[in-house]
Amino acid sequence: MAGDPHSSQPADGQEDLAALRARIDALDAELLERLSERARCAEAVARVKRSQESNPVFYRPEREAEILRRVREQNPGPLSGEAITRLFREIMSECLALEHPLHVAYLGPVGTFTHLAARKHFGHAVETQPLASIDAVFDAVETGRAQFGVVPIENSSEGVVTHTVDCFMDSSLQICGEVVTPIHHHLLTHAEDLGQVRRVLAHAQALAQCRQWLDAELPNAEREAVSSNARAAEIAAQDPTVAALASQAAADHYQIPVRAPHVEDRADNTTRFLIIGSGTTEPSGADRTSVMLTTANRPGSLYSLLKPIAESGISLTRIESRPSRCTPWNYVFFLDLVGHQQDPLIRECLEQLRASADTVKVLGSYPQAAT
Hints:
Blueprint: H1 12-52, H2 61-74, H3 81-99, E1 103-107, H4 113-122, E2 127-131, H5 134-142, E3 148-155, E4 159-160, H6 162-169, E5 174-182, E6 186-188, E7 199-202, H7 204-209, H8 211-217, E8 222-225, H9 229-236, E9 242-246, H10 248-254, E10 258-260, E11 270-277, E12 287-294, H11 301-312, E13 316-323, E14 331-338, H12 344-356, E15 359-367
Parallel strand pairs: 1-2, 1-3, 7-8, 7-9
Antiparallel strand pairs: 3-4, 3-11, 5-11, 6-9, 6-10, 12-14, 12-15, 13-14
Helix pairs in contact: 1-3, 2-3, 11-12
C-alpha cells in the first residue's frame, strides 16, 4: 500500500538522499579535476614568467583583487560572498605557492589580529613570520627578509595607529593592499571565577575598546598594556590570576578557556590593516591611493592642500596629521583618496598638490579591501 511505513520499498526521501549523495560525489570528482587543472596552469604561468622576465613578479595584488571581485559578482549562491571569497583566496594561495612561495612578516606573536589579517589576505599557503614590533616588520621588508608585511593602521573606534603612520615618514616601502577585519575580543583566563582575576592584560587599544565591559565586570582588576593581545594570552596561560583580551585564535593557540566572549564595547568594532611591499601595484578597478604631504605652518596651508581634492570631486576617505619631527609645530598630513594614481583625476590632483605643498610622497595605490 502506498505510503505504508512498513513497506519494504525505500521511501522517496531515502531514494532522493542516495541520488543527491551520488551527485555530490560526482561534483567532488569534477571539482578536484578542475582544481588540479588550475594548479597546472599556475605552474605553467611560473615557467613562462621565468623564461620571459629577468626578475619575474609572481604575486600581483591587483590581479587577485580582480579575481575575487569577479567571483563575488558572479556568485549565484547559496554560498555567501564572504564564503566564496574565502574559498577562492585559499585556492589562489595554494596555486601561488606552486609558482613562488611568499614570505610575509606581521606584527606578532602568533594569534594577533594582524596574524589573522595576514591569513585573510594571503591565505594559509604563505610562510609567515611574527615580529615583535611594527618597526621590525618594516625593516624585514626593506631588507628583503620578507617580501611583504602586514601592519595595523586604524581602528573604527580608537582611530589611527600612530606608530604605523610614523614608520612611513622614513620608509621607501609602498602600500600594496589593505585588509578590513572585524575585531572580537574575548576574555581568556584559567581562573575558575572572575573574582580571582587580579590583572587584565592586552594591547592598549584593546583595553580601550573593552573599557565599558571591564568597568562593569572587572572594576577591581588592574589593567596593564602589553605589546600585543597574543602576548597577553601567552602570559595569562602561565598565571591563573591574569586574564587576557585576545582572539579565539589566541585562545586556541595558547590553550586558554574563553570565560567571556565578545567583550568589546561596540559590536561593529573593526580594524584596517595595510600590506606593505617594495613594488608598485597596477590599477585593479577599485583602488585607493595614500599620500603623505608636508607644508609650512602658515594661514590657509591646509585649505590649499584640500582645495584641489575638493574641486576635482575625488573622495577623501581619511586625513591624519602627525608632528613632522623636524620642526616644532610643523605637521605631516596623511590622506587616503579613492582612485589609483594612474587615473586621470588622481594624477591631475597630485600635480596640483605638488604645486602647493612643500613635499608630496605617494605611499601607494592599491586595491580597496573587499567588504
